[in-house]
Structure formats: C-alpha cells, structure tokens
Amino acid sequence: MIQHLNNIHHQNSRNFFLIAGPCIIEGEDMALRIAEKVLNMTDRLQIPFIFKGSFKKANRSRVDSFTTIGEEKSLEILKKVGDTFNIPTTTDIHENEHAALAAQFVDVLQIPAFLVRQTDLLVAAAKTGKCVTLKKGQFLSPESMKFAVEKVKDSGNEKTAIIERGNSFGYTDLIVDFRGIPTMQQFAPVILDVTHSLQQPNQSSGVTGGRPDLIETIAKAGIAVGADGLFIETHEDPACALSDGANMLKLDQLESLLQKLTRIREAIL
After folding, report:
1. CA distance readout (Å), 89 to 60, 114, 132, 138
2. Maximum distance among all alpha carbons in the chain?
C-alpha cells in the first residue's frame, strides 16, 4: 500500500511502516506536536510513517462519550498535519457520505472493524481513489477478509491493506491469532493494530478498558511473524485522553519501542 503514497518518507527502507497518532483529534496544537515528535523518531529509524487521528468517533458505548471537536475542524487539522510535515494522514469513516468528505483532507481511508462487511461503505471508499485500510472484524476469520479486499479491488481500487486487531474472546477480551497475519497477506499487506488488540471492551462502567503493559509484547510478536506495518495509538498523557486512553501508549515510550522493533525487523530480513 505505501508504494501509492508519494509523500511517505523512507518508502524503500525495507522497514515496517507505522500508522500512529492519537485516537481522536483533540485540537490542532496537540495533533501537530504528536505528529512532529513521531516523525522525528521515525526519520531517525527510517520507518515510513502515516499520521492517524479520528475526525469523529461513532462507535461509543455510551451516548455521553466524546465524539468530535467538529467534523470539518478535525479534518482541516489532519490536512494541516499532512501539509506541514509532508506526510500521509489517515482517519476512519463510518458512513458512505464520509468517504468523499474525508478524501478531500486525508490520504488513507480506514474502515472500522464493525463496518468491514458494509459493502456500500467499502465501495464508496474505494471509488475515492484513496488508499483504503480494512480493519478485520473481531468476529471474522482471517480467511474471510479475502472478500472485503475483493470488494475494494472489484470497485477499481488496488490500493488496500488489512488491519488485524484481534478476535473477541469471551465478553471482555481480545486475542490476536498470529497465524492470521500470513494468511491475510495472501490478499493484501497486513498491519497489526497493537493498541486496539489490547482493548478490554464491554466493561460495566461503559468505558472500554485495556492492557497497555502488553503493547511491547504484541508489537514484538507482530514484527517477528512478518507484519508489514504496525498501528499504534499514542498520546502525551493517555490518562487525560478524550478517547481510548486505557489502551494507548504514552508518547515518550514510543521511540524506545520502535528501536527494539527495528532490530527485530533487521534480524528477520
């Protein structure tokens, strides 16, 4: 997928690529700070980097959960991040109309896991001509993602990748089956969503929990089995994040992790 992104750095480094940023756009200054810090890290390590931030959260447990600072405002911030640092950006879309809207501002459209079987949404994303990432539903087998990929390709868009984010295990945990990565690589490049794989959904409080202490474990395993890319949500202060703080990586811990992962990547090439 990254070969289609002209503004991505280190495209030929043979390193894994990284999708990283906050769960949701909380403000312009915050987005620019995080993007600049992650870009500096990835430039030092020659890791291709795509900045991620949701312009709106639609899948919330409670009606009073934070959703957006404003749809167009958030998209304008994503565009400013991309223009300021000459890097690709991505956001998730939830409605057919969001595809054409978001495509005006970002380089990669992400289909959420719960919506990856929604044919009209996938076709709308594909027809924008943008790169499309497909999050594997927690309820789907790796083999079944072949059909989601085919929906995008049959709509005339070859620029797609799959994001693995674990399978539901009971009511409150997710488990990553690493056998699925080589299986899905038969259909498209595979990105391991490290932080969402460590979510603990369906808590009695209505606020999703998480296990950020296992981020390094999951990330190392993903690189060791040959994932093409990693997805890591990061925040300067996860405890104060407006969304998904329970499973995000603290920004000041990211570079040390990326250094370790780069060494694993070098060892397996």
Report:
1. 23, 22, 12, 24
2. 47
Domain CATH for 119: 3.20.20.70
Q: How far apart are CA 5 and CA 249, in angstroms?
A: 26
List, in sequence order, every residue forming a beta bridge with 229; answer none if it has no partner. Answer: 17, 191
Domain tally, the chain:
1
Question: Distance between CA 251 and CA 233 in Å, rounded?
Answer: 9
Concatenated DSSP letters of 127-151? TTTSEEEEEPPTTS-TTTHHHHHHH
| CA atoms of 253 and 132, how far apart (whole Å) | 29
Q: In sequence order, what E strands does 75-216 have? A: 89-92, 108-111, 131-135, 160-164, 167-169, 173-175, 190-193, 199-200, 209-210
Other Cβ atoms less than 10 A from the Cβ of 154: the count is 12
| Residues contacting 263, CB < 8 A, separation 6+ | none
**Residue whose structure tokens are 């060494």:** 263
| Cβ partners under 8 Å of residue 178, min gap 6 | 221, 222, 225
Nearest 5°: the CA angle 216, 230, 20 is 95
Domain that holds residue 224: 2-268
> How far apart are alpha carbons 87 and 20 in whole angstroms?
12
- Asked if residue 174 lies in contact with residue 198, where contact means CB atoms within 8 angstroms, the answer is yes
CA distances 246 to 45, 211, 219, 231, Å, are 27, 7, 17, 16
Residue pointed to by tokens 């997710």: 174
Note the pLDDT tens digit of each residue in 112-138: 999 999 999 999 999 999 999 999 999
Residue-wise pLDDT tens digits, 138-188: 999 999 999 999 999 999 999 999 999 999 998 888 999 999 999 999 999
Give, rounded to a whole angstrom, the gap between the first and last alpha carbons of the chain. Answer: 19
